[in-house]
Amino acid sequence: METKVWSLAERPERTRAVLGMADSWPELVLHDLVGNSHYGRIPAEFPEYVLFAEDERGEVVAHAFSVPFALHAEGRGTLPARGWDQVLAWAFADLRNGTPPDTVSAVSVVVHPHVQGAGLSARMLGAMRDNARAHGFTEVVAPVRPSAKHLEPRTPVEEYVRRVRPDGLPYDPWMRVHVRAGATVDSVAPASMTVVGSLEMWRGWTGLPFDTAGDVDVEGALVPVRCEPEKDLAVYVEPNVWMRHPL
């Protein structure tokens, strides 16, 4: 497939097409409050860190969002246990406060469903690394959502991320793409994304009854959702894996 990669800083008129591109996110992750508050702001406030690929017809077929932030600011220094949520909060707080960034964090790499499997995710990850380097950064970090973990939600994430193939590469396909690009595993982010909702909300999101106390397996979820009927509440706390890309 012939594609051309641009940033939204170069092509701001493509913002609507980028945000409107079809994706394959599982429904439950679309209800993370931190993500809902910040993700849509990235194209407007960090356009130079939003990359997208157009095919030969001019259709947006992939995009990669990242944000600059101050990992080594006072009180930080280590990659946070709250992963995706925390790095979004830090990036926008740093922007508001005028704190100079020293690191770029990947936020997402999304490929249009009709062209998945064509190698675009690796290309967009490489473009994100090149873009960070061009802006003077020496490291990209990524709160990686392991792409096959949802197939075994009851497996402890620490066990899952240690699993490797005979060739030494990670068992998980998306982690493998990162390692091939030059990344190493840093740590597990045990609470990278949190989704809280009433039982009626969860029934609407999943089509499941959510009427029994305990852990509920939900399609697309990396770990079970905790259901507490006496509180009319269910909570999903998603782990991710921090990976580091030296540039």
Q: Can you walk me through this structure?
A:
This protein is an alpha+beta fold and 247 residues long. It has one domain: Aminopeptidase (3-Layer(aba) Sandwich), CATH 3.40.630.30. The protein is 27% helix and 29% strand. The protein has 8 helices and 9 strands. Strands 1, 2, 3, 4, 5, 6, 7, 8 and 9 form a 9-stranded mixed beta sheet that branches. Strand 7 and strand 8 form a beta hairpin. The model has no long low-confidence stretch (mean pLDDT 97).
Topology:
Elements: E1 3-7, H1 15-19, H2 33-38, H3 42-45, E2 50-55, E3 60-69, H4 83-97, E4 103-111, H5 120-134, E5 139-144, H6 157-162, H7 173-180, E6 184-197, H8 199-206, E7 214-216, E8 225-228, E9 233-246
